[in-house]
Amino acid sequence: MSTLKRFFKDTLIYGLAAVLPKAINVFLVKLKTTIFNAENYSTDINFYVYAAYFNVLLTYGMETAFFRFFTKEKEKGKIISTTFISLVITTLLFLVITLLFSNTLSSLVGFANPLHFKLLIFTLVLDTLVVVPFAYLRVTNRPIKFTFLKVSNVIVSALLTVFFIWAVPSYKIVLPAFFIHLFGKAPQVVYIFLAGVIASLSTLLLLIPTLLKFKLIFDKIIFKKLLRYALPIMIAGIAYVTNENLDKILIKKMLGDTSNGIYAACYKLSVFMTLFVLAFRLGAEPFFFNQSDKKNAKETYAIILNWFTIFGGFILFIIVAYIHLFSKIILGKEEFYQALHIVPILLLANLFLGIYHNLAIWYKLTDKTKYGMYFSIIGALITVVLNLLLIQKYGYIVSAWITLGVYFTMTLLSYFYSRKHYAIPYNIKKVSFYIILPSVLAAISYLKFEKNYYISTTLLILFIIIVYFKEQKSIKNFIN
């Protein structure tokens, strides 16, 4: 049980790295939606949608490959340096090519202003250069330093965003002439992107001491091993980003910027589940690889999935039951409230996505990453076809249902294939119960007792009591 205690402790720290930065960004949504209308907010969302695609291409699965081979191979120094050098070379090539053709590429991906695209490129390049240092901190169990750097990044970005789009116009601060010449007068969406570039640069500078520890040795044999493992992860990543972001691209094209801005703003309310999943992944990925050679590894993975589902169900209920309180805190203008009904669907979808990430350990440990690629491609094809066919007729609500259907399908596929290749004794009945129970309670609260927080709180207490009585033995063992 001490192993699990360490896992939960590290995950809690990583949770701060995931939750605090994202939470700050979520609360910035209200500032953005107050200052910008739905059409301008759509531009902000468009920026980060394409950032997600480029991020997958730039890292091309090497981060996961690094974790796998760092725990598997003896020559760890060569794993670190080979991964780092390969990413630096490909990232610099990407920078040169995209800057040379920035005007054409900017128009191709839908940026009216090429400067927006250039700032996106610089942010991505800087973020990619720190992938290996951050992965090194995670795999060597240094969550506190990792968290400090991640939180520092978002604080810098948030403070600059507030300064540019709120303080400058509110207090009539005069920016330097060259700033106005390059970026125009604040507040503009471009200043949000500029804040991201400066924050990413500050993180790279803080990581220089870690970078200096790496001995620059490039091993071709190791590189081939890394690449063979990583490329299916990259393809799966592209498919995953498609599942997450294609709806916003198609809603923008088929329903317009206003609908896209409203949909994307309410989509942010499901980010609480996304943050939980992200926090889990930051702690779980290196932990799962490090535990793979232990005798009771499979039993540990099963216990972790059980508790993941419990906490995920708890988050789902909280957000749905108190959705109007969260919307007032996070969203600005009332025009963004129109899509609140997508939030419960997306929360459940992201809970299944988190379960899928739990299950994914079987193909990562057996080096069968091609299966992850297959599952993600199937999900992406469903996403593309159904969104193209249905958005125009049914509106953005259908995109939320498609997301749920896709992640549920991927979860089932991964589970059934895992039983053949790397059977883990998951308690499926219990996991299913912890999905259904909070979903039913949330539906009762949302559909029958909307804004009745006395009933919602009673249902929440009921959920906690049921979990305690079903898991009291596990809780006592963990405490002891």
How would you characterize the overall build of this protein?
With 480 residues, the protein is an all-alpha fold. The chain has one domain. The chain has 22 helices and no strands. The longest helix has 36 residues, at 220-255. It is globular and about 65 Å long. 46% of the residues are buried.
Radius of gyration: 22 Å
The pLDDT mean sits at: 85
- Low-confidence spans: none
Describe the biggest sheet?
Answer: none
**Helical region count?**
22
SSE succession:
HHHHHHHHHHHHHHHHHHHHHH
| Oligomeric state of this protein | single chain
Give the number of domains: 1
The percentage helix is over 70%
Total strands: the figure is: 0
**Structural class, from helix and strand content?**
mainly alpha
Query: What fraction of the residues are assigned to beta strands by DSSP?
Result: under 5%
- The shape, in one word, is globular
Straight-line N-to-C gap:
9 Å
At a glance:
The chain is mainly alpha-helical and 480 residues long.
Characteristic key phrases:
84% helix, 480 residues, mainly alpha
Chain-wise SSE layout:
Elements: H1 2-35, H2 38-59, H3 62-72, H4 76-100, H5 102-108, H6 114-129, H7 131-139, H8 143-170, H9 177-183, H10 189-206, H11 208-211, H12 220-255, H13 257-267, H14 271-291, H15 297-321, H16 323-330, H17 343-359, H18 361-365, H19 369-394, H20 397-421, H21 428-448, H22 453-479
Helix pairs in contact: 1-8, 1-14, 2-6, 2-12, 2-13, 3-4, 3-7, 3-12, 3-14, 4-6, 4-7, 4-12, 5-6, 6-10, 8-10, 12-13, 12-19, 14-15, 14-17, 15-17, 15-21, 15-22, 17-20, 19-20, 21-22
